[in-house]
Each structure stands twice: as structure tokens, then as C-alpha cells.
């Protein structure tokens, strides 16, 4: 290209068929890209929150189910069982009787397992257990109903089991669960 000096042609000649983008096209494309990225980020955040909530719900349901299953395994072959108030369970545990206990306190299911005349092995199971919505109830002479309810985030998670006490009919025909409940503690003996 050559430029002429002087005269009216002070600017270089215009190149024909320029195939670049105009400023308006670039701004519109950036606005569309920004909108799409914002929507994608919002969707990602929503998905992450949904997954997190699902995992929390699964953990709570799993805790309740495992606690209920463990309780059933421990109590199924009991030779004595009485449904009692929580205060009675705490008093008896402090007196070191030779019984085992399950009770609901402080949002958890607890077990106090008799070891010897001076000690218990104490364990806690599950979280968010509601003492007002969970209980032990005698259905009949040899069947215990166990209802565990966890409350988290305004939702209730339930495990409800009727447990047949296998040894009761074997001991004698009149052997029965003591106390009918509903209450939040049980005292039991296993062979």
C-alpha cells in the first residue's frame, strides 16, 4: 500500500470484504455467554444442594434402621423384659443391677450393657431421635413394638418394628413382657 501525501486521501484505502465481528456482535455474544454460564452455575448449585440433602436423608434413615436392627438383635432372645420410664432406667443403671437397658435420651438411642456388678458398657446409636415420638410398647405377652423416630429439618424418619421375643414361650406359658408402655426405656436380661 502506498499513501499519498497531501491532497484529500490522507487515510489508507478501505479493505473490502472485511470478515471480522463488529463491536455490537461481540457484546451480544458476551451477554448470551454470560446468561448461559449464570444458568449453568445456578443449576450446578441446585444439584449440589439436592445431592447434599439426599445424602443427609440417607444417613439419618440408615442410622435409624441400623439402630433398630441392633436393638432387635440384642433383645430378641431376652428371658425377661420390662418397659420402664427413662428415670427408672437411669436410677437402676446407677445402682448397677444385673440387667441391660435401652433408653432414649438427648436425641440418641443408648444401650447400657451389664458387664459385672460394678460396670456397664454404654453405647449410643443414631442421631436426632425424638423422645416424644419414639417408644417401646407391649403388643401382647411376647411381642414388643419398637418405634424410633428421627426428626431433622422438619421431616420425620421412622423405623417401626414388632419384635417377637423368642424365649418367652419357651420359659413357660405365662411368661410375659412387664409393663405395656408406651415408654422410652426397656430393661432386659439375656441368657
Word description of this protein:
This protein is of the alpha+beta class. It is built from 3 helices and 8 strands, in the order αβαββββββαβ. It has helices spanning 23-75, 86-94, 168-171, and strands at residues 80-84, 100-105, 108-116, 119-125, 135-140, 143-152, 155-164, 185-189. A 5-stranded antiparallel sheet has the order 1-8-2-3-4. The chain has a 3-stranded antiparallel sheet with strand order 5-6-7, with helices on one face. The longest helix has 53 residues, at 23-75. The mean pLDDT is 86.
Secondary structure: elements and pairs:
Blueprint lengths: L22 H53 L4 E5 L1 H9 L5 E6 L2 E9 L2 E7 L9 E6 L2 E10 L2 E10 L3 H4 L13 E5 L2
Antiparallel strand pairs: 1-8, 2-3, 2-8, 3-4, 5-6, 6-7
State the gist of this model.
The chain is of the alpha+beta class and 191 residues long. The protein is built from three helices and eight strands.
Strand content: 25-35%
Arrangement of strands in the largest sheet: 1-8-2-3-4
Q: Which H/E pattern describes the elements?
A: HEHEEEEEEHE
Radius of gyration: 35 Å
Assembly status: single chain
Low-pLDDT residue intervals, each spanning 5 or more residues:
none
Please tally the helical runs, counting DSSP H or I stretches of 4 or more residues.
Answer: 3
Q: What is the terminal separation in angstroms?
A: 107 Å
Largest sheet: 5 strands, antiparallel
What is the β-strand count?
A: 8
Using the alpha-carbon principal axes, give the shape: rod-shaped
* Secondary structure category: alpha+beta
Question: Helix fraction?
Answer: 25-40%
Mean pLDDT: 86
Amino acid at each position: 500500500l502506498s499513501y499519498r501525501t497531501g491532497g484529500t486521501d490522507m487515510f489508507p484505502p478501505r479493505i473490502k470484504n472485511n470478515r471480522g465481528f463488529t463491536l455490537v456482535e461481540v457484546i451480544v455474544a458476551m451477554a448470551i455467554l454470560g446468561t448461559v454460564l449464570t444458568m449453568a452455575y445456578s443449576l450446578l448449585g441446585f444439584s449440589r444442594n439436592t445431592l447434599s440433602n439426599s445424602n443427609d436423608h440417607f444417613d439419618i434413615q440408615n442410622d435409624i434402621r441400623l439402630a433398630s436392627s441392633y436393638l432387635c438383635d440384642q433383645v430378641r432372645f431376652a428371658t425377661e423384659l420390662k418397659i420402664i420410664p427413662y428415670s427408672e432406667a437411669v436410677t437402676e443403671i446407677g445402682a448397677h443391677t444385673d440387667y441391660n437397658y435401652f433408653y432414649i435420651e438427648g436425641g440418641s438411642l443408648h444401650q447400657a450393657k451389664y458387664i459385672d456388678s460394678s460396670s456397664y458398657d454404654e453405647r449410643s446409636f443414631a442421631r436426632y431421635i425424638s423422645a416424644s415420638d419414639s417408644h417401646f410398647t407391649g403388643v401382647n405377652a411376647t411381642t414388643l413394638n419398637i418405634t424410633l423416630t428421627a426428626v431433622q429439618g422438619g421431616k420425620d424418619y421412622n423405623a417401626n418394628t414388632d419384635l417377637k421375643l423368642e424365649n418367652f414361650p419357651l420359659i413357660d406359658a405365662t411368661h410375659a413382657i412387664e409393663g405395656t408402655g408406651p415408654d422410652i426405656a426397656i430393661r432386659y436380661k439375656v441368657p
